[in-house]
Amino acid sequence: MLKSNMRILITGGAGFIGSHLVDRLMENEKNEVIVADNYFTGSKENLRKWIGHPRFELIRHDVTEPLLVEVDQIYHLACPASPIFYKYNPVKTIKTNVIGTLNMLGLAKRVGARILLTSTSEVYGDPLIHPQPETYWGNVNPIGVRSCYDEGKRVAETLMFDYHRQHGIEIRIARIFNTYGPRMNIDDGRVVSNFIAQAIRGEALTVQKPGTQTRSFCYVSDMVDGLIRLMGGENTGPINIGNPGEFTMTELAETVKELINPEVEIKMVENTPDDPRQRKPDITKAKELLGWEPKVKLREGLPLMEQDFRNRLGVPKK
């Protein structure tokens, strides 16, 4: 039985998904929320409305260093999650995934907290099974430019289960698929933010060749709902959390063009190595075990993200 007053730590809580999770958890007046973030990819701006709130605390902290706090739950989100950031500093990325997760598990062990890891669809690599169920072991290049992230998260999952089996730690693992929404870093190299920023600026939408590769996009409010359900439930996971609606990159570009700026052109550019050909979650487990499925359709979510990007770029809608 979880007690009514919860002290909740969110690592990476100043980031895109983390800050939306803070917003949702702060709605419950019984929650005290502590955010630890080093601002490598996160921003204090994302948490501005909570700074100074009596139930909220913000600590500038890098999870590769141990943290001493008394908490009941840990949402461990800290890690650069965009290719630009993890290719810019691959060593930092794998250290965050491995040492950061070790430190948070050590904290969970010491204080008896339940810990949720946001793992990733990247653990499936370039999948040979479609859509991907949680039982699929993946097809990952261990020495590629993305490996610091993909393999880092695979090791993090291993550590979670080792601490669970050896020390009885209560663990939850979410494998999250592509997520989009307000507060994404504008130039983070992820496809939805790229296309929306390009459309708003009137630039050509750059689709990586061949354009037939697919992704599934989950709106951030749906993602946060899934994470909270997983933390509150009785299943360790791993559980896929993502939107099974599948789009080719060309279809996504055409949708952004239609909704945001019909005048821009779509231009094909060279692809990055190890780019998975397809990605689509099998969310059977999330539906059955969490009663969760996404509600927000891509055509509903994109305009909400557009408004946020326009505000930050200072480009009003004509």
Search tags:
single chain; 318 residues; alpha/beta; Rossmann fold; UDP-galactose 4-epimerase, domain 1; 2 domains; 7-stranded parallel β-sheet; two-stranded parallel sheet; 9 helices; 13 strands
Supply the number of structural domains: 2
Instruction: State the CATH architecture of the largest domain.
Output: 3-Layer(aba) Sandwich
- Name of the CATH class of the largest domain: Alpha Beta
Strand tally, please? Answer: 13
Q: State the oligomer.
A: single chain
Taken in chain order, the helices and strands follow as EHEEEHHEHEEHEEEHEEHEHH
Structural class: alpha/beta
Task: State the fourth-level CATH superfamily of the largest domain.
Answer: NAD(P)-binding Rossmann-like Domain
- Over the alpha carbons, how many angstroms does the gyration radius reach? 19 Å
Residue share in β-strands: 15-25%
Strands ordered across the widest β-sheet: 3-2-1-4-5-6-11
Mean pLDDT: 95
Tell me about the largest β-sheet: 7 strands, parallel
Q: Any idea what the shape is?
A: globular
Helix content: 25-40%
| Helical stretch tally | 9
Q: Would you give the CATH topology of the largest domain?
A: Rossmann fold
Overview of this structure, please?
- With 318 residues, this protein is an alpha/beta fold.
- It folds into 2 domains: 6-179 and 218-241, NAD(P)-binding Rossmann-like Domain (Rossmann fold, 3-Layer(aba) Sandwich); 182-215 and 245-279 and 296-313, UDP-galactose 4-epimerase, domain 1 (Alpha-Beta Complex).
- Helix content is 37%, strand content 18%.
- It contains 9 helices and 13 strands.
- The strands form 4 sheets. Strands 3-2-1-4-5-6-11 form a 7-stranded parallel sheet, with helices on both faces. A two-stranded parallel ribbon has the order 7-10. The chain has a two-stranded parallel ribbon with strand order 8-13.
- Helix 1 (16-26) links the parallel strand 1 and strand 2 (31-37).
- Helix 1 (16-26) crosses helix 6 (220-232), helix 5 (191-201) packs parallel to helix 7 and helix 7 crosses helix 9 (298-313).
- It is globular, with a radius of gyration of 19 Å.
- The termini are far apart.
- 45% of the residues are buried.
- Residues 9-303 form the NAD(P)-binding domain.
- Its cofactor is NAD(+).
- Pathway: Nucleotide-sugar biosynthesis; UDP-alpha-D-xylose biosynthesis; UDP-alpha-D-xylose from UDP-alpha-D-glucuronate: step 1/1.
- InterPro entries: NAD(P)-bd_dom (IPR016040), NAD(P)-bd_dom_sf (IPR036291), UXS-like (IPR044516).
- This is UDP-glucuronate decarboxylase.
